[in-house]
Amino acid sequence: METYNEEPQMEAYIEAPQMNYATYNFENTALELARAQWPNYADQHYLKGCKWSPDGTCLLTVVRGGGMNVFELPSDLYSCDSVMQSRQIGALTPAVSVPETGLIYDYSWYPGMNSGNAATCCWLSSGHEGPIHLWDAFTGDLRCSYRGYNAVDELESAMSVTFSADGQNIFCGYKKNVKIFATGRPGREYVEYPTTHQASCIVASQAQPGVVAIGTVKNTIELVSQSDGTFRHLCKLQGQKGGITTMVFSLDGSRLYSGSRKDKELICWDLRVPGRPMFVLPRECSSNQRISIDLSMDNKWLVSGGTDGKVQVWNVSEQSYPSVHMQMSLHNDSCNGVSLHPYRPVLATASGQHHAIDPLHHSRTMPVYENALCMWWVGVQQEDPDLFTTIIKAATHSSA
């Protein structure tokens, strides 16, 4: 019998503090707030997405060869209504680092994460040739592990992982099935749901507990309903050109947005009338890399990265076919990660990709690639007062 670290009880879903949704302003270009940079030549330290915590206090990212890192939201951004355009770009320093050198496939925050309750502050990760780990977001320590095995009792790696909406279960995508673990029971006890192809992406609906979308490497999406260890097939969606790499449910559960590898189209599925796309949106995705999407909490703004380094924004609340509301060139390399802050008008982006390296070093200069985690202000901006006005105000104040 394996021994695991003591895992805090998470019997009830603990909600984040009640806050108003962020008011985004995508009329102006994004203002860079803070940045963290990693080198990339021999070690290929490119980033693999980024995700805000459910309570919005911190940002999680994975760096190939650089482990997992948690960064805190700068304190001045918790309550400000606007930001000066002259605000200096801050340097992001990890609050917590987990030096996992192995390849990380996927990761997910606990949905009830609340910094006021240490037991809820954790995230999952799945990696190459290893079990699924639950990490402590305060210390970076390993809390416990969940192990899936194949038909010949060999430890199997999960390609995708996510929590159920209430945080009570963990859904893990494997080659021939989806395994479901009870969050409070680490080890190798699980139930299985068979799949035709490898489950490359899994998301759970917040509006309809138990409803899960399973994306596969063969461009299909299956919606299933899970409760009490039993599964019911709801429908199958097919329309993407490649293996599914990113999906997001709308907060009301009526829509599902999906994207796939080497596919320059995002598809919006109307789940009230499943079977055909509601509309299709264009983006640049010319590689097998996972290029993520995100949806604002008010279901209005959909954002996507791109292999061209651009972030595209659509107003998907419009009744007509949505066109690109804004396109921002934020990175010099592939923008693989985008994440909208749940309560503040802050956009997080992650950049980088694998580059073929000349082993003989024929080039005299080493190429410099952008592997950066950035925070951008997408709210109201204040113009800087001109120097003349500042001098007049200072003189008036001194004479008085």
TrEMBL record:
It comes from the Eukaryota. PROSITE patterns: WD_REPEATS_1, WD_REPEATS_2. Keywords: Repeat, WD repeat. Gene3D superfamilies: YVTN repeat-like/Quinoprotein amine dehydrogenase. One of its GO terms (molecular function) is RNA binding. One of its GO terms (biological process) is Cajal body organization. InterPro entries: SWT21/TCAB1_mRNA_Telomere, WD40/YVTN_repeat-like_dom_sf, WD40_repeat_CS, WD40_repeat_dom_sf, WD40_rpt. GO terms for cellular component: Cajal body. WD repeats lie at residues 292-324. Transmembrane segments: none annotated. SMART domains: WD40 (SM00320). PANTHER family: TELOMERASE CAJAL BODY PROTEIN 1 (PTHR13211:SF0). Belongs to the TCAB1 family. This is WD repeat-containing protein 79.
